Amino acid sequence: MLISVTINGKKYTDEVSADLVLLDYLREKGCLSVKRGCETSNCGLCTVHLDGKPILSCSWLAVRADGHSITTLEGLQEEAAEFGAFLADEGGEQCGFCSPGFIMNVLAMVRELPNPNEEEILEYLSGNLCRCTGYQSQLRAVKKYLAQKQEVKS
């Protein structure tokens, strides 16, 4: 099937098999931040933005992305580095395997929820699994990042 997508601002038109998952298509295009974890839509490692909204690319067929714009961590380097510094400062990036998907969800949350409380943060990020951190360091990083964003707005 012929698809046409925009990935990180660059247009692609390709023939793909009907059963190719978006995660594999993106990795073929060099988007190596998109990780394979559970393959059951439960871990968040494969999170990308489709037209600005987070999706799990392991559960999307590439053909469903036809006509859409996809953003991976490679396309959000400046924002990712800004939040990544908070994550590292709080010890929330131990092995780093879950970080790309987690960062993609945090950046989507910041766009969607202007001033989330702790409960909203936890709910929004509940699908991101991490085996290293115990989540408290990640939560501290998100809170500090959001506080800094609020200070900049003021």
Overview in brief:
The chain is α+β, with helices and mostly antiparallel strands and 154 residues long.
In words, what does this structure look like?
The chain has 154 residues and is of the alpha+beta class. The protein has five helices and five strands, in the order E-E-H-E-E-E-H-H-H-H. The chain has helices at residues 22-28, 77-89, 99-112, 118-124, 136-153, and strands at residues 2-7, 10-15, 47-50, 53-56, 69-71. The chain has a five-stranded mixed sheet with strand order 2-1-5-3-4, with helices on one face. The longest helix has 18 residues, at 136-153.
Q: Give the overall shape.
A: globular
Number of strands: 5
What's the SSE pattern? Answer: EEHEEEHHHH
Largest sheet: number of strands, sense, barrel closure: 5 strands, mixed
Averaging pLDDT over every residue, what do you get? 92
Q: What is Rg?
A: 16 Å
Q: What's the number of helices?
A: 5
Residue stretches low in confidence (pLDDT < 50, at least 5 long) are: none
Determine the strand fraction and express it as a percent band. 5-15%
Q: Biggest sheet, strands in spatial order?
A: 2-1-5-3-4
Tell me the distance between the termini: 49 Å
> What is the helix fraction of residues, given as a range?
25-40%
Backbone structural class = alpha+beta
